[in-house]
Amino acid sequence: MNDLNDIFVFTAVVKHKAFSAAAQSLKLPKSSVSRRVGRLESRLGVRLLERSTRKLRPTEAGEAFYTRCSAILADLDNAEKDMARLRAEPMGKVRVSCPLGIAQHFLSQIVPDFITRYPLVRLEVVATNRRIDLIEDRIDVAIRARLQLDDETLMMRRLGLSRWIFVASPEFVQQRTIPAAPAEMSDLQYLSAHEEASQRWTLVGPGGIRKAIAFDPILCTSDFNILIAAASAGQGIAFLPNEIVRHAIQKAQLLRIFPDWSSEEVTTYLVFMTRRGINPAVRAVIDFLAENYEQQVCLTGDAAD
To answer: Does 303 fall in a domain?
Structure first.
């Protein structure tokens, strides 16, 4: 491996056209400068400088080597400046992963503001409901909604709490007799965000009672927009996160049914690999997501209650 210090010293000698002037600029003894250039010539097996008591000039080989080395050292200097800028302001690509529903109903609302605030950041959103591995999938920040997180190696920042609730259109409710508890609703039509055909959902009822109930949905899709549209059209009862259906409830497109029953409490997290040495662009994404999740979801309250 070549010693870059030797190359750096050689380029300084050529630039200043003298060992003494190069030594003075580098704050090194002249003997050290001469020794480094000699060591470089020995390693390359070619004479780089023509020396006399009054003049110094590069040989043809030395001139060619100087041109290449100057370009390389300039690239290294620019790389260090780029790293300094990265430390100073958010810039560069950041890959964010999140479930499809969160992308539709949260990220879609705030991404334009993020781009305006951080024009040098290149945001890449991976909206998927498959399980993401941050390393394998090259993800910087992931949004996850879980009853519990099982990967202890990840750093986490809690965004908020949520529960899934049952909703249906006013027309659906008017045309049917809706029982008081979900255990009595096996003959009703259900719309599910879980993609298994036959499902069991663990529900929490009055007094904290927990009950696992089997369902056979007529529609299964991970796309919350499809479920809200189908429920609003009177096609069935949807089981969705309370913050996702809040606006539809406020507009009376949907009604909450079985108000004493919901899912177990779900926590939404930001997960990332480390806090140490995190670059400003990733930090900006984490802080922006946390700030806006609180404003968009948590501080607005649960209109379904």
So the answer is: no
- C-alpha 81/C-alpha 42 separation (Å) is 32
pLDDT tens by residue, 11-23: 999 998 899 898 9
Contact between 191 and 233 (Cβ < 8 Å)? no
DSSP E strand boundaries for the chain: 49-51, 56-58, 92-98, 121-127, 141-146, 155-162, 164-168, 190-192, 199-204, 210-215, 219-220, 237-241, 255-257, 262-263, 266-272
Number of domains in the chain: 3
Question: Which residues does residue 123 pair with via DSSP β-bridges, in sequence order?
Answer: 94
Q: Which residues pair with 231 in a beta bridge?
A: none
Bridge-based pairing of strands 237-241 and 190-192 is parallel
Looking at residue 2, its pLDDT comes to: 59
Domain final residue pick, 88, 116, 138: 88
User: Residue 70 is part of a domain; what is its CATH number?
Assistant: 1.10.10.10
Domain end among 31, 63, 88: 88
Q: What is the pLDDT of residues 195-237, one digit of tens each?
A: 665 577 889 999 889 988 888 888 988 899 999 999 999 999 9
